[in-house]
Amino acid sequence: MAYNDKVLDHYENPRNVGSFDKNDDNVGTGMVGAPACGDVMKLQIKVGDDGVINDAKFKTFGCGSAIASSSLVTEWIKGKSLDDALTIKNKDIAEELALPPVKIHCSVLAEDAIKQAITDYKKKQ
Amino acid sequence: MKLPIYMDNQATTPVDPRVLELMIPWFTEKFGNPASSSHSFGWEADTAVKKARKQVADLIGADPKEIIFTSGATESDNIAILGVANFHKERGNHIITLVSEHKAVLDSCRFLESEGFDVTYLPVQDNGLIDLDLLVNAFTDKTILVTVMAANNEIGVIQPLAQIGALCRERKVYFHTDAAQGVGKYPIDVNKMNIDLLSISGHKFYAPKGVGALYVRRRPRVRLKPVMFGGGHERGIRSGTLPTPLLVGLGAACEIAAQDMESDNRRILALRERMRQGILGQLSDVVVNGDLEQRLAGNLNISFNYVEGESLMMAIKDVAVSSGSACTSASLEPSYVLRALGVNEEMAHTSIRFGLGRFSTEEEVDFVVKTIVKAVNKLREMSPLWEMAQEGINMDDIEWAAH
Amino acid sequence: MIYLDHNATSPVREEVVEQIIPYFREFSGNPSSVHNPGRAAQKGLDDARRKVAGLVDVHASQVIFTSGGTEANNLALMGVASKFDFKGRIITSTIEHPSVLQMCDLLESRGMQIVKIGVDEQGVVDLDSLEAAITPDTCLISIMHANNETGVVQPVADIANICRHRDVLFHSDTVQSVAKLPVTLANIGADMISLSAHKFGGPKGVGALIINNRLKFPGILLGGSQERGRRAGTENLPGIVGFGAAADLLIDGQKDYADFLFGLRNQLEEKLSNLVPELVIFGNNSERLANTTAVGIAGLDGETLVMHMDMAGFAISAGSACGSGRTKASHVLTAMGYDGAIGQSAVRISLGWDTKAADIDKFVMVFSRTVKQLQQMSAPLTMAV
Q1: pLDDT tens digits along C152-197
Q2: Of B254, B281, C31, C327, whose CB count within 10 A is highest?
Q3: Can you tell me the distance from the alpha carbon of C343 to that of C324, in angstroms, rounded to the nearest whole number?
Q4: pTM of the prediction?
Q5: Nearest CB to B233; choose among C198, C307, C323
Q6: Residue B131 burial (CB < 10 Å; 0-12/13-18/19+)?
Q7: How close are the terminal C-alpha atoms of chain A, in Å?
Q8: Is the pLDDT of residue B403 over 60?
Q9: Complex ipTM value
Q10: Peptide bond into B334 cis (omega under 30)
Q11: 3-state secondary structure of B17
Q12: Interface test with C, best of A1, A3, A63 (most C CBs within 10 A)
């Protein structure tokens, strides 16, 4: 549990914690993971008329790395187009946070959450 | 108050300063090998070993001749279980134990299964205690050994050793107990409880690490095959130079435990209750795992629903506790002990073990309560599960995509 | 009281005790715990492991901490035996430590073939017999580096060569030779060597088996993933820290230490031989550990001599320190052919880091005087027979 400073920073000062109204047409919600596995991540995006993600929020049940991964991606996807957001790979997240092998699944979850949120948004359009 | 606060006394304890003081001279001035029979350095060390052996024996109502010194409870468990099994395999090949035992017991049993033994792993009740009816029904004419722990390392529940011992004695089956968490914490008497073999760990009750003992009954005599071989130390059951300073420490810790047990327990129990009430009074959706009555005074194991254990440990980094969360275990599985109680995986992930001890203080307890309440509230604000619960969504209705 | 029984055990060095003490209280966490105190303990463990690895020139992952030399020897033999499914042959010598010999007895009872190679009168293992004993199903040769009773050093480099050519694993019990000879895994040429901390200024209750990284085998203690699953149980952290500290002290000073002991030992043997001409030094013509002198004087009883020396303020031993508390005819001297009166008279003088030149002078004086007294006392008896 010797965490890297970036993980600690995101864990202690998580960015963009919160929720949007999931019934709002401009909001896409991704919920991934399972309580039995020890991590559940909820990632929400708010997309503008120009197709750019102008806000993002998360809530996460999980270890420090899971929280940091979701906090990090909310920062990364803000201001990105949907297509650009989809280019974010778990490897990028794991590298940025220097996640050890046992925590790689946290970055995978974060990537999945982005995809699911975007899919959910597109479905509403 | 010094930070971090150590509240993980079931993992290990610091050496009591009174114990340490007695150990020091045995490293340098009185350094002889207790097996050196030809000079006074050896005799002096041997005298110290004898004294320690008696101190250990006295604590559990045994005879000094029945105490075998080992490197710790893991080794004691190995010797007891493998030793009895190997000696008596002609008579029977069945062993009974609990699913919630320590790994040293479970792994020894699994090894014996690979050698052709049958092992019954009894489930425990949802309070963590053995179901004696199940035990009675598990005996067969091939049963040679029952091994049940004195107190559980994760949830602190105390098994009814006297009743188990009586059942074993009636059937002439050996009874071993891994008492690593029990010895020194509450009264254990090998004769009153009909215990035939008992494992002791020094570092769980303020003696040093690297030393333990195995009680092996002489009347009726328990015969076992040794696991370690060499100079014939310890009645041939456990060879190797005896580490005098560590034994002096173990002996002293036993004597202090016997003398302070009552007052220590009264004080530690009061602290634990203060802690339990403090937490339960301020947080909803928290559950204490394991029986509250039949329990070590110093153990409190709580599941904080909707908050993952490892992230909670991070949030209270000034407090050293342990978690049943998979993320903190080498196996990446949530605690098998909690699972054995019927605690679901989700709740197992949210559990924290608080281990109070001889050196815990009220000030520390209050600090921990304050810290934990704050951290749980903060993490719940971040938890999608908490949010759903507040919205009245039933988690069981959701199809989770496992990964 | 002057202590000259360092092969049995040595006092812990003050510098080592100072490093141990904090691990009883300040850094008393369990290295398996993930919290702060646990990580501090883990760091102590890692540092110590690196120091021990440094002493014998291996990577830290090759160090398996044990409760001492006995367990290390047990682990080596048991580990290889179970790797080979308790089939095949193990070759050892007649002069090994009981922790090797008795483990061999057990393995024999489990169906393995055990061959014990003898030694010559100088205490050296016969290499021809050793080589001749190797069969295609021989899985392990276990020969100690230096004998605890006589200090005689075995030709481990030659044995290692033989093992390499014949594709047999080689274990060497180096418990007595570490610190007195430059012992590294590569120097010995072994796949495994055993160490014990208390023989060179570390605490009792801790040792290690150093293994070749290619070698994989199950541990003997079950029930935890400590030591990479090869040795379960909460680590003896203060002990391990002390082991590391003692190893660290040696890394720079090993050669000086050996020279220092060698000087003292030569002084001892020269003076003894002059004053007691009938004295026999066992293994005299062999390479021996710089600190060990085993002597015999036909007609005397070693036990009695040792007791008189104790009363006169000198701690030496007759035979080795073993758990039974009684001394019997030494299996080592018997193997060297000294099974009669001379074997009965054997005593061992072993020097250590706290031995001083003046101690040697005092010892020689008292020893020769005591020998003369005992000889006079027993003379009439001898004549009567």
Answers
A1: 999 999 999 999 999 999 999 999 999 999 999 999 999 999 999 9
A2: B254
A3: 19
A4: 0.93
A5: C323
A6: middle
A7: 43
A8: no
A9: 0.93
A10: no
A11: helix
A12: A1
